[in-house]
Amino acid sequence: MSQQTVYDQAGFGRAVPRGSRPAIVVVDFSYGFTDTQYPTAADMHSQIAATRRLTDVARAAGFPVIYTTIAYHPGELDMLPWLKKASGMAALLAGSRLVEIDAATGIQSYDAIVTKKGASAFFGTSLAAMLSGSLVDTLVVTGATTSGCVRATVVDAVQSGFNVLVPRDCCADRASAPHQANLYDMHQKYADVTDADDIHAWLLTLADP
């Protein structure tokens, strides 16, 4: 029996309903992840460009575009267990360039930025309240890394009551194997994993008066 047959028979991989009030959450496209002069970063220029294509359309249609970044105060560094496991993240200090959103994303001054301390954009933040307050029914999640903060955000988004879409070409990781494995798993259990062309076309139908 094939792997896909096993998942199908278990009832996974069903299609996610799409609403009429989407938002885009761009996870951690900050310089600490996108500028390869930093050891925590990887080349993400194509994923940033694909994401910007979607955020430009969403913003023009009046849909929320929200960015996230990880930023720590020096006093937190010795207290957080994640930083003992992923010690490289300790370089993401508040006020440094590493935590600034990469300008190539096309971020605007009025776009919301959620600052987080862990992988999920929901844990310990106001993101769920912001989305609910904006009457969002469908969440498009992009960003970095696919196997880390994107996945954690997707899982928490579903658990927070949102239908979730993940354009694969808008997500980046440091290695192909975890990227592909986590896209597969998210598609089976938590989200529809699709691509930027599909999301772009869908956003245009919602923006059409």
From TrEMBL:
GO terms for molecular function: hydrolase activity. Residues 23-198 form the Isochorismatase-like domain. SUPFAM superfamilies: Isochorismatase-like hydrolases. The keyword Ribonucleoprotein does not apply. Keywords: Hydrolase. The keyword Ribonucleoprotein does not apply. Pfam families: Isochorismatase. This is Isochorismatase family protein. It comes from Salinicola corii. The lineage of its organism: Bacteria, Pseudomonadati, Pseudomonadota, Gammaproteobacteria, Oceanospirillales.
